[in-house]
Amino acid sequence: MRRTRYALSVGLCLFVLVTLGYYYAYASDERLPSLKLETIEGDAKEGAALSLIGSYHQSMQSRMLTVTTDGSEYAQRDTLVDLLPWERPWTPDSPDLKAIRKEHPNFMRGKGEPRGWYRDEEMLVYAAADNGGSDGRIRLKVEVLNESSGKTKRYSVAVEDSQSYTYPYTADVQRVGGQLHVLVFMQHTEVADRVRDAIGLNEVWDYVLDLEDGSLISRNNLTEGLKAESGVDAELRIAPIAEGSLAAPSEYALIEVTDIKVKQLAHNTQEINNLGTRLYSYSYRTGERKLLVPFKTSARGTGFMCKLYGNQVSVQQDGETPGTFAWTLFDVATGEKKADLTVTAEQLGGTDIGTVFIAHGRVYTLVHDTDSPLGGGGSMAAVLDAATGQVLYRGKAVIADPTRDGDKEWSRLELFSLSLRDES
Amino acid sequence: MNRYLKLVHMEIHRFRYFLLGLMALTLVGQILTVAIATSNEAAKFRDPARFSIDSADKLSFEWIVRISQGMFALPILISMAALLFYVFLIWYRDWLGRSTFMYRLLALPTARRNLYLSKLTAIVLFVFVLLSFQLILLAFEQLIFHWIVPADIRGESVFTDVILSNWLFEVLLPLSGSQFVSLYGFGIMAVTVLFTAILLERSYRIWGIGYAAAYVAACGFAVYATPFALGVNQLGSYFYQWEIFAIEAAVCFLVTAVSVALGFRLLNKRISV
Fold first, then answer.
1. Residue B84 has pLDDT above 50, yes or no
2. CA-CA distance, A366 to A361, in Å (whole number)?
3. Which of A96, A204, B51, B64 could form a disulfide with A247 if both were Cys (CB 3.0 to 4.6 A apart)?
């Protein structure tokens, strides 16, 4: 009797330990397949920069995954940390800002503008524009960290005669010698019925500050004099385009100016037609705005993407026929067209174009083979030289574990996007 | 340590029939659900004209669990409510009745903190016993499914998919070990706060009800408000996400420590024979 007196309690404790221990040691492992990006053709170093994004569908669940030359990684299920609301979703995605956060975590605290960063060998700068003060003026808040001494300077500059602007956000920050250029995108306001509302044209201003004392030296309106050129009914849509690497130095910015026609439809909806786009370059050094060669959008649609990396402007859009994409390169300093190329999915080993983007002088693309029985296994990643169109790399994701049923696993896998791997 | 373990055993022994009842309720409820749902779905497979919802070729156990969310969850929710009620009853049953058992417990030649810890341990153990029972039950239910459904229409189910197909299983049996520790650590904190609130009520009687309510509110506010005070939902907040989580975890740990310490003090100083 004495021996069995505590049998229930001991038994329950052992039951809990064994069952939950087994569950978390073994049974809760989803045993998902591991994949790897393998080179089919070209320089493996080009493929090392790639990260394929997809999902694995197991019965009624799916898990996001990324595939690189090192292997695959599945997205963790939401933990309690992930469930906390978080207002800076851009920080995980940009390699520039990730590097800054790693090296200067305290400097990065409290700073929410993704495009408010500038970094070179000497200094790290953050600038943000707001108009939250009682006087309604645009205020520029700047912090400069000297990389060698570790000292920080802070400036707050109120811009005179800026009460008629609102919704300012920092589009770019650049340094030219001893001057700091803060590119701010904002909107005119007007007061009607005692209500201040943003109804004017968007404007882009370059505020030039002295890095020594933070004083405002000058300001340039990059959008001054711009007018719609496609008829009386046309309106202007303006968007600044800064250097693609968020914190990298650049001597230029771009202004994308689009003529649009807005048609009001039923139920408070609008139809917006793109009538034509012009691209202007702006030099921080000279303050000059120059029209780059206007470009035509593809007959298949008006979707296009402009980017600036270093001195190279790329305009990328769908090709004239399905399964193709085209791009044009310009030298931003001279406006000279450097390349005007089209590539077909067939040339890269597929039938459809999936993801395409241009960065750092390369064209990165994921093409799909809809005729492939392998589903996600029919996708091909490719890297091309943006200036010549030469294929530098082609690669495919493979299942790393040979014991897995390849056909079955590929029927569950879908690779739908491509990005650059985190460089930090 | 010996006396503490004996007190834990006493608490388990007192609750054993109730625990058995909850396990029986879960067993009967879920097995009936599996049997009925499986039979109905298997019949649909034999009659394609009635079959319209799922276009899969085979019937899987995961599908059965997915379409029976409510019936699977019901006995679990009843068990959770019963255990929550017992968090209060585990103390009050010792004070109620003609011969107050609490006086005999307080007169035992053991540190009074063992009373607190043994009751806390017992509650936590009951929760884990029911979780473990649920895991075993799922495996047994899958066997029942295999018995009912013929092999030609039976599809395979991965155990983790079965867990993920029911929202309550996904919450109570998270696949991540760290998530499990966070969730049940939070639950243990909540139990310690309630225990201390009960002891406040027992120590100060009428005024104790107010003290208990204020204590629970203060702890709840500290845990809830901390992330927002740290700017978790603000653009450009000073703290990073992982720092906010670490501070929140520290606050939860502090609330637990204060609750336990206060509970010990009340048992030692305020509650007397």
1. yes
2. 17
3. A96
Angle between helices A7-22 and B113-148 (to 10 degrees): 60
User: Of the candidates B42, B67, B43, B30, which has an alpha carbon nearest to the alpha carbon of residue B141?
Assistant: B30
Last residue of a domain, one of B174, B195, B225: B174
State the CATH number of the domain containing residue A417. Answer: 2.40.10.480
Say if A49 falls within a structural domain.
Answer: yes
Indicate whether B42 and B169 sit together in one domain: yes
In chain B, which residue's Cα lies nearest the Cα of A76? Answer: B176
Question: Could you give the angle at the alpha carbon of A324 between the alpha carbons of A321 and A328, nearest 5°?
Answer: 105
Whole-angstrom Cα distance, residue B122 to residue B195? 13
Asked if A9 lies within 8 A of B8 by C-beta distance, the reply is: yes
User: Is A274's pLDDT higher than 60?
Assistant: yes
**A97 burial level (CB within 10 Å; 0-12, 13-18, 19+):** buried
pLDDT at A70 over 50: yes
Q: Is A105 in Cβ contact with B182 (below 8 Å)?
A: no
Identify the burial level of B84 via C-beta atoms within 10 angstroms of its C-beta, where 0-12 means exposed, 13-18 middle and 19 or more buried.
middle
Mean local confidence (pLDDT), A50-62: 83
* CB of B111 less than 8 A from some CB of A: no
Would you say residue A151 lies in a domain?
no
Best of B164, B189, B242 to disrupt the A interface (most A CBs within 10 Å) is B164
DSSP state of A2: T
On whether both B1 and B124 belong to a single domain, the answer is: yes
Q: How far apart are the first and last CA of chain B?
A: 23
* B245 contacts in chain A (CB < 8 Å): 80-81, 84
pLDDT of A125 above 60: yes
Of B144, B174, B204, at which residue does a domain stop?
B174
Residue A424, pLDDT score? 36
Total domains, chain B: 2
- The more confident residue out of B210 and A225 is B210
Interchain contact B131–A (C-beta under 8 A) = yes
CA distance B89 to B82: 10
Nearest-Cα distance to chain B for A335, in Å, is: 38
| Range(s) of the domain holding residue A412 | 26-86+299-424
- Residues in chain B with CB shorter than 8 Å from the CB of A111 are 236
Tell me if chain B has a CB within 8 Å of the CB of A109.
Answer: yes
How far is residue A87's CA from residue A76's CA, in Å, rounded to a whole number? Answer: 20
Would you mind telling me the total number of residues written for chain A in this entry? 424
Q: Testing the interface with A: which of B5, B240, B243 to mutate, by most A Cβ within 10 A?
A: B240
Q: What's the pLDDT at A410? A: 86
Which of B9, B128, B239 comes nearest A16 by C-beta? B128
Mean pLDDT of the region A327-341: 89
Residue A298 has pLDDT above 80, yes or no: no
User: Mean pLDDT score of chain A, rounded to an integer?
Assistant: 85
Q: How far are the Cα atoms of A171, A203, A246, A379, B171 from residue A238, in angstroms, in the given order?
A: 12, 8, 20, 36, 47
* pLDDT for position A197: 56
Which residue range is the domain that position B56 belongs to?
A: 1-174
